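Schema walkthrough. Field components (list of strings):
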Amino acid sequence: MELYHGSLDVETIFSKWLNEEKNSNYGAYIPFVGTIRAEDGIEALSFDIYEPILEQWFQNWVKRAEELGAKVKMAHAIGDVPVHTSSYISAVFSPKRRVALELIDEFVEDFKANAPIWKYDVKDGKRIYAEDRSTPMSGSGLLS
Amino acid sequence: MVRVEFLGPISQEVLELEAKTLAEVATQLQNIDTIAPWLEKCAVAVNDQMTADLSMVLKSGDKISILPPVCGG
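Field assembly_structure (string):
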């Protein structure tokens, strides 16, 4: 798992991951790239991350992928990410395509639901919590 | 004393509370007007482990994290 301040350098991360696995004998490499769209007058999105729990979440996925003979990787931005640049990349490597195609779907969807990351719109230099696009994590409401 | 920290968009400094269980933390947080509305949609971790156990026994120095709704990517 890799965290960067500001936009991700997609080409560099792609090629680094490809290079890391070039001799691993995986037949499939499926990346997902999240890019900030220009909409609703935003200049950027901004992200807070709680790293200790994100790391645990990611390590659970590493184990789950290993059981299928696959490998997952991810990179995410911290702080402001301007429109038309990337905030999130994940990828699955697997011996054959089917496992990777299915895992990338589950991995990205679970990321959206349970990774401890908070998103803000940046408008006129102000950070506004993206509450309407956010999802309560599993187990929410315990203290209410 | 246990430390309660509020993550992401919740504007609240760290609180130090006397509590022997997570249920006692819940009762105290429900009485804080600025925090109470968040509780229904927040998950909880104790010492960086997510938990669903309100009866969890706490010891002095434990860190309780309050995690509001997330949206990565």
